[in-house]
Write the structure tokens for this entry.
Amino acid sequence: MYIPRYALPRPDRLHDHSIIHTDCLVIGSGIAGLYSAIAASEHMNVMLMTKDTLRASNTQYAQGGIAAVLAEDDSPSQHKADTIMAGAGLCDEDIVDLLVRESPRMIDQLMSYGVLFDQQHGRLALTKEGAHTHRRILHCNGDATGAEIVRGLTETIQNNERITIHEHTYAIDLLTQGHRCYGVIAQEKTGRDIVVLAQSVVLATGGIGQLYSYTTNPFIATGDGIGMALRAGAELQDMEFIQFHPTVFKNKQGQGFLISEALRGEGAVLRNIRGERFMPQYHDLAELAPRDVVSRAIFNEMMATEQPSVYLDITQHTEAWLSQRFPTINAVCREHGINMAKNLVPVAPAAHYAMGGVKTNRHGETNIDGLYACGETACTGLHGANRLASNSLSESVVMADRIVKKIVEKNDTQVGSPPHLETLLYGADSAKIYASSDNKFRSDKIQNIRHTLQTLMTSHVGVERQASELQEMRTHIEASMHDVYQHLDSRVERREESSQQIIELTNLLSCALLCTVSAQSREESRGGHYRRDFPHTREEWRTHLIYQRDEHGYLKGRRKNVSSKMEKTY
Ligand code: FAD
Ligand code: SIN
């Protein structure tokens, strides 16, 4: 499948564009982007670009908490062992070492930016989640950790003169020449294009949950950073590993509302429609087994009982305790007529987190100079095949801190002289352009393609996969990509209202292609990738899968050994 270099096939034909220079451009305003912007502003001028409001992000919805070793009976080596166990043999051990060592310091940093963590008996309160052997999850306002982190960081940013905030500004494509990134082409809400030239670019655009029909992720999670990075020649790693959160409640609008794993950490158990507790049959850790294990067990029970859900039972706690410890979840359940102290909550697995993403090293650097990736968009190798609960928020801040240190060390703080803009836009890379098509791509057509993609990804590249379905999915994606790219070539002549919608669709299709191709290649089951036709883990597959767009526009893949000093620990 040919992948064009730009989502805008003639980026040289920008509309009424202006050019902005900055030292550091941060794309995305979740925890990774907000933290990177604050840290970078201590050394340079920063532009923070985000496609919706500052607060629209996955981070805003994080519930359970952020993992860091603070308890006296806990240790970094325990946190490391738990992370590696959950990661099913695919975690890069040197990155795990970094996380467990540096996350306690980052909690202090977050508090210095005004984030208020819950306290108990005068100390930071710590809870437990799946596959953690110790209480090491800090939380805010009970179950509203993300919202409090976003509040603290956005208030810090809004008072910072070195950070320029551009809300409702949609990053479309990275500008590169040779092996260097020089900035980005973006579009403002008004439809006006902007070209931002920066010495360093931090991609912090979050996850890809919108690839699936049923997800915990909000509308912003359309894999834009992964799509942009792929087109620009960056390496993408571990894209077959998707985490399905086991306990998601369908709200009145049919959207997924997360019922935090912290409920199971506080003793909640899972029951099937017959009222039977089933998790002890599947794993020694029962409800606190790694997420992939719990999600597959629930999926099995749903199939066996022919039901759309199983049930979470936390009725051993009182109403008063539940409303104090889990105020948000309690309120949403109440809105739906469920009193958690008395009733069971119907739950099913939903797409939640992408373990894969833009491949980085331990400093957040990608294979393109000047381009860094941070947060869910990145793949550092920390999570392996399955992320340990609450390690995502910790990873984002640990890596943001390291990225800024690296930028400063490389003395990337002054804007150099990028090549002439036209050279960048016309660059040798712009390659083949699709033939024009006069068909007007209406919004309902975009919606249809997106809806079918989500339905098929759920059934064919979901909790379980197999060769025939993966091949069908690949054929479908390639046909849809062809259709969309043909249209894109004509669209640039007439700015249609659907610009952002169609580029998001292009990015979702790119992510779908990467997930499917990687899942086809990996002939084994491991963590968030389960193949019905290869149900066992195979030692020879203890490798990362890396894909990249080659210089002719086609996907090329390679395998890389996991960095590990440990013997088989999963
Ligand atoms: P996000 O927070 O998703 O931010 C991405 C940003 O990029 C957004 O501002 C978005 O608008 C912007 N953006 C995207 N594309 C573009 C573009 N083209 N141009 C400009 N801007 C763009 N993890 C934990 O560790 N603990 C938890 O308790 C926890 N609970 C969770 C609960 C829920 C419901 C969900 C969905 C996730 C949870 N996670 C949790 C996972 C964690 O929240 C995310 O992995 C993490 O917040 C990702 O942060 P981020 O900064 O990388 O991305
Ligand atoms: C949860 O609260 O269950 C989500 C935690 C996470 O995704 O890390």
